[in-house]
Input
Amino acid sequence: MSLDELIQAANQLDEADLERLFQQVVILRAHRKANVLPLEEAQLLHKINQCIDPELRAQYQTLRAKKEAETLTDAEYNTLIQLSNQIEQFGAQRLEALANLAQLRQVSLSELMETLGIQPVTYV
Output
């Protein structure tokens, strides 16, 4: 299969499957580079490239929409707070892994992100 065919096939995927494909490609890439990457760098890259569970993201987005529509129950509000905390913690752990990798490689965080092709992301 050619690269163009792979890209066309990926274009047909829904958001959740595209995210899973991306993660698998990143893991494949890390495995191929594992022979040249120190273990600590490989572990940090794995943590950096993890994504939020699509179901958690969907639940969060649903609750946010209900909050904006002012139809959120107290129980849903508590769930929204918990999900927000989980997402915030996920982002902080990813940022910590990025900072640690930048320090290991002795480059700035922005330079590392550019090198890795990482754009600042909104998780939800």
